[in-house]
Amino acid sequence: MLQYLINASAIWLICLLCYEALFRRESFYKYNRLFLLFSLAAGLLLPAVSLNKIIPVVSQERESFAQPVSQVYKLKRKIAGADVPQVKNPQQSASTQVSGSNTQLLLWSIYFAGLVIGLVLIFREALYLYRLYKSGRKTALQGCILVETGKKHGPFSFFKLIFVSSRQDYNDTEWKWLWAHELEHKLRFHSLDNLAVIATRLIFWFHPLPHIFFKKLRMVHEFQADKAAATEIQEYGTFLLEQSLLQPSQTLTHSFNYSPIKIRIAMLTRVRSARTHLLKYLAVFPVMLILIFFCTQVVSGEMNSRAAKVYFKGNEIIMGELKVIPYSYRDEIQNQKKIFMHASLPDSVLVKDWRANRWIMQPVLAEKMPLSINGKHIFGQEPQYLMSDADVDYTAPVFGEAGDFEEYLFSKLQPELNKLDDGAYGFKVNRVVIDDRGAIAYYEEQGIEKYIEPYAQGRDISKNLKEAIQKKMAEALNTSVKFTPAQKDGRAINARVGVGIYNILVKHHKATLMKDGGC
Q1: Rounded to whole angstroms, how far apart are CA atoms 108 and 219?
Q2: Rounded Cα gap, residues 223 and 229, in angstroms
Q3: CA-to-CA distance for 72 and 319, rounded, in angstroms?
Q4: How many Cβ atoms are within 10 Å of 310's Cβ, its own excluded?
Q5: Closest CA to 497 of 355, 366, 397
């Protein structure tokens, strides 16, 4: 939500600056109106658009996790236990989550209170218009309904309803100007624009920019209506000044005496813009391309990847990043945590490069992991994660059917795995979450790949066999597999379990699960 607001604000602000700098003084009111409406809609829609869904992007990780060089690295890392992520202190995370939930509840309460107040004010205005309409004298005229209210107020219109105090208050020339002005509002459907912007103002009542758009657009509406009505500019300007003394109309309507009158008269007397000035509007295209690139989820989504929401098997999963600390640095981190209670993980660490026999600074990578499910924290105690000193009362989930979860999955896959050609294979299942009822609530699988030594020849796995193995894996994970849920302080909790890459050896069409196949 925060990223959406930032992107929407950027779009609205840049468009308003462009309008002020390039278009506001031009007499091309139709194009100015379209630009303002388009800008407002762009701010609402573009931040919610992900071009990655329109233009598919293949993740390098998912394309093939068993490329020769990268796979050798992963196997070496697995054997040496090279990379060890850090898990956050669950007690600290739980207290932070409660505090964050209270703050979020307060903010939403304030937002909805403001929204309700805005709706009440709009409803009161609509009720006032209805009462004026019901009590006034109505006359059908040129496709409109003239409503003479008998009350002292300035003329105004709402769609085809035109409200005046009395027809007798105006001479023939003044009535011609007034009627032409309000009829122009009706013919150009200005009330539709008005309602759309009012709805945006209600939703974003806390945001100043939609309110500025409202004022700018209303002024353009008046420019258009004045242009259609003003046959004698000097006399029409005097008439506008006289009407400005009357009470203005409601927000829902278009008032004849909408202020500032001075600007409206100035626009009437301004020399009409040259046609060559239309070229200014071509600047809209590069501006919008820049906004599309920087304010959609193509870039901003990547920038906001530290916290993402996914839905899986009916569960709402919040994903976040955990830092991956090299195995050789684990003891140093643990010592720091003992000395400094709230020590944070570093962005880079000092590691030994054994080939060069020297110490080097290595950036700390981050790995996206499921952090909460349906609003509840997910605890992580996988073997590759650092144990927190506060987790002494933690008990990991226990697979209750075959005793060994990896053996169970392998047994389900073995009939299909036996069809593979001889060789070594890897099947990756990652980030498995066992909920507090003992069911598999989330997982990620990336299919099977063959390990091929560099420069060696080998046949690829057929597409049909790959799909069959993946289907079997999905069936095994999506059936009613039951665990004894993880326990923390005597209660069942959500927890991640370590699975990782299954290393499979096939010889004479008989598949074998290599020991310590998972991570």
Answers
A1: 33
A2: 10
A3: 28
A4: 12
A5: 397
- pTM of the complete model: 0.55
How confident is the model over 92-108, as pLDDT tens digits? 444 544 454 577 788 88
Task: Report the alpha-carbon angle 502-508-509, nearest 5.
Answer: 55
Helix ranges (H only) for 64-189 are 68-80, 90-135, 172-187
Q: Which two tokens stand for residue 149?
A: 């209210």
Q: Which residue has the tokens 């326990």?
A: 487
**Element housing 496 (H / E):** strand 491-497
Pairing of strands 144-148, 161-164: parallel
State how far the Cα of 519 lies from the Cα of 512, in Å rounded to an integer: 17
Half-sphere exposure of 32 (CA within 13 A, CB side): 24
Question: Whole-angstrom Cα distance, residue 512 to residue 515?
Answer: 9
The token pair that represents 62 in the structure block: 């998912």
Sheet holding 161-164, edge to edge: 137-141, 144-148, 161-164, 156-158, 254-255
d(CA 169, CA 151): 12
Which tens digits make up the pLDDT trace of 144-195?
999 999 888 888 999 999 999 999 889 999 899 999 999 999 999 999 999 9
SS3 374: coil
Cα R_g (the chain), whole angstroms: 34
